[in-house]
Amino acid sequence: MATSNEGHGWQAGPWIVEPTGMEVFGNPRTQFLEAEVVQKHLDQLPFKEENQPLSDRLGSESDVGVIRPREVEQLVELSNAGEEVWETLVRDEQIHIQRHRDRSLFNGSVFVKLVGRISNTTAAHVAHCFGNFSDRAGWDKQMDSFRLMYNVECNDILYSLLHAPPLTDRDFLIYHATLRHEAGRGIMLYTRSASNRLCPPTRAVRATQYVASYCIMQDPDGKGVTFTTTSAVDPHIPFLPKWVLTLLMPSEFRRWRNAVEKRCRELHRDAVPIPVAALLQPEPELRAPFAPNKEKAVTEAATEEATPTGKSSTEAGSTQDGHSRGDVSDVKTAGGDTESSPGTRPDSSPRIEDTVAAAPATSPGLCWCC
User: Fold this and answer.
1) Most buried residue, 216, 341, 359, 370, by most Cβ within 10 Å?
2) What number is the average pLDDT over the span 144-173?
3) What angle do CA 248, 118, 209 make, to 5 degrees?
4) pTM for the full predicted model
5) Torsion of CA 254, 131, 162, 109, to 10 degrees
6) CA triple 219-223-225, angle to 5 deg
């Protein structure tokens, strides 16, 4: 059940929002937006029926208000659905990749759920890899220019830029909610696109993130972490067949998962401070088997959703496009410096086969995680 406490955040099922947002990861906040501008925008938005199906509400891109508890519950419920809703594409010892069976949702974007596990680490360390901007800049060379532009009603307004040569850069303007599990053993990042009116156009192509959640849970045995990404993202790459994304997805997700695992080992080795650990149980408790208590049913439900096979996950929507960019029509050209509004770009439309072959084999893929 969704609950709200004005001034003290809100709760969606077992997930409790963190009012200060991504500051809990150790990120500085720079006030890029004026309070009056944000509030005026929010005041002008029409009322949205919260019980409307999630894909209907967000697929039209008309719901550009702040993230509310009911929609978080809706995505968790959808993500927890079984094989009747999610079709398995790949399932092995490292990754479990599923795609929603209804291909029409979110305007036909690739709507996926990815699950994976990293052993011998904690949920705090994995969350740090996702959410600490300065640390992430050291190992993720595609996502940068993170800016916490404003915080309103427990939502960060976050700007970020994604590099994926040979394509034009993509940028994101999103609402971002940071939530902790009431059992103290997990973190969720829930995001979706905000209104472009809050941030002027740039040289990059503005991608649409219909919805994305990143659920990071300590396994019940305490020996590792399972993280689940559920996302529907449109990077606005014209003429790119969805089968290309599907084809490239497994290798890209595996690559992303391995990069996070490597960074977690380095964090442990170097005893790097993990600010977000303050939201969770102390590390000795996280690494111990989870004792049954009144929250057991809630935790098991979250873990079941995160570990259908006890395998490993990665960034949905992210890696899948890392190569897809090498794949499409907006490859940069010598004369491609002209300004264009978000979501548009003059395109030279090379053959898909050629651009896929030209994509860097070492690219960690497209990361949609924040």
Assistant:
1) 216
2) 87
3) 50
4) 0.78
5) 60
6) 45
Nearest to 85 by CA among 117, 107, 112, 57: 112
DSSP string covering 103-172: TTGGGG-EEEEEEEEEES--HHHHHHHHH-HHHHHHH-SSEEEEEEEEEETTEEEEEEEE--TTBPPEEE
Closest C-alpha among 106, 41, 104 to residue 316:
106
Q: In this predicted model, what pLDDT tens digit does every residue of 316-360 receive, in sequence order? A: 333 333 333 333 334 444 344 443 333 333 333 333 334 334 433
370 lies in some domain: no
Select the more confidently predicted residue: 352 or 161. 161
Q: Is residue 254 part of a domain?
A: yes
CATH of the domain at 18: 3.30.530.20
Question: Is there a domain that residue 364 lies in?
Answer: no
Q: Reduced to 3 states, what is the DSSP secondary structure of residue 27?
A: coil
Range of the domain at 203: 2-358
